[in-house]
Amino acid sequence: MASGAQQPGPPGRAGPATRIVVALGKPVQGPGARRVEFPERVLRMWDMLSEAGDGLELETVPPEALARIHQLVKAAAAELQVSISPALAGEMRHFIDGCAAEPSASEVRIEYASLLGWLAGLVIGIYAQLDDSKHELAISAHPRGSTKSPLDTGGTP
After folding, report:
1. Which end of the chain is more exposed for a tag (fewer CB within 10 A), N or C?
2. What is the pLDDT of residues 119-143, one digit of tens each?
3. Mean pLDDT of 54-80
């Protein structure tokens, strides 16, 4: 099952909203679609990158920590590329490509923050679609004329 959610376009720019489709259970077909084929991998990369940023908050980042975080960003990007559609992968590369082979601390910080920020938007879209799917299932399971919601656990508020 797949579910779609509308996302607002860039601020200050009128136009159609971006639609991201999350594949829940099976791949989604369609050329040029912005798809998340493996949401569990995307969420795992989000968690891994979120945990890794503490070292970048230091005023002086040790060279070994800098190299580790740069390698982590590259590994996460490679994992994400096989988890999302080519259209989304191209969008992601736009934010993280161009870093030097031996990047400075500032370049690694920018690369890390860019990927994490882009990924945050994708994760929000995944959670929104999962929530929409949950509500769609609840509504379809809700018999007409019943006053009790299928989401009601029977407890008192």
Report:
1. C
2. 999 999 888 888 776 766 667 766 5
3. 85
CB 123 within 8 A of CB 20: no
115 closest CA partner among 66, 65, 69, 73: 73
Q: Measuring CA to CA, which residue among 25, 12, 5 is closest to residue 135?
A: 5
Asked if residue 15 has pLDDT above 80, the reply is no
Contact criterion met (CB below 8 Å) for 130 and 22: yes
